[in-house]
Amino acid sequence: MGLTICKNIVEKYNGKIWFESEENVGTKFYVSIPAQAA
User: Does pLDDT of 5 surpass 80?
Assistant: First the structure.
């Protein structure tokens, strides 16, 4: 459920969320959200 909430928030701000998984090592999650002009 936690990742679903994160995904919804990230998509609301036109961002993206993805992961990379390596067997016997672990999984890394990444989040990218575009910056707004000041």
Answer: yes
CA geometry: angle 16, 1, 6, nearest 5 deg: 25
Which runs of consecutive H residues, i.e. helices, occur in 1-38? 2-12
- The pTM for the full model equals 0.69
- DSSP-derived 3-state class of residue 12: helix
Burial of 29 (0-12, 13-18, 19+ CB in 10 A): exposed
37 assigned to some structural domain: no
- What's the domain count of the chain? 1
Range of the domain at 17: 2-32
Two structure tokens written together for 9: 């928030």
